[in-house]
Amino acid sequence: MEQTMRKAILGSTLTAVAVAAALAVGAMPAQARERGAAAKGEQVRSVQRSRGADGLVDSTRTNRRGGTTTIDRHRDSAGNVDAIIVGPRGGVSTVDRSRGADGLVDKTVTGPNGRTKSVDRTRGADSLVDKTVVGPVGGVTTVDRSRG
Question: Model's pTM, two decimal places?
């Protein structure tokens, strides 16, 4: 009788373990979906804009990991809008705009590693605005716009 009882207990234990395993396998995809949905719902990003004392809009961006990027726009002595950008890891980029001899706005961007990219806009013979971009490693790209 003792042997029969052990077999019954062992059989019911194995059945209970099998049922629990089946339920766990069936529930895993549903739980994974719930975790994925919750994780996507928690990806909070925010952008806060405010008008500075100089009348230009400054912004602070917070990414989903909590890093903040601030953009401080200001006017230089010639009235051009320049910007200082501080990234989430402390890198500082500057955007310097100036008017060229042809009256068009040129731009120089200095990245956090000190490399610069410059954009020179010119008015072509067809009166359209063309531009030349010199990249941070010295590559030159020219855009010649045309009608037609």
Answer: 0.64
Q: Using an 8 Å Cβ cutoff, are 120 and 108 in contact?
A: no
Burial code (b: 16+ CB inside 10 Å, e: under 16) for 19-29 equals: eeeeeeeeeee
d(CA 45, CA 73): 21
Closest CA to 80 of 57, 108, 56, 99: 99
Q: How many CB atoms lie within 10 A of CB 115?
A: 12
108-49-63 Cα angle (round to 5): 80
**C-alpha angle 76/80/85, rounded to 5°?**
75
Tens of pLDDT along the chain (148 residues)? Answer: 566 655 555 555 556 555 555 555 555 555 554 445 445 555 678 999 999 888 999 999 999 889 999 999 999 998 999 999 999 999 999 999 999 888 999 999 999 999 999 999 999 888 899 999 999 999 999 999 988 7
SS3 content of the chain, % helix, strand, coil (to 5): 25, 40, 35
Q: What is the DSSP letter of 128?
A: -
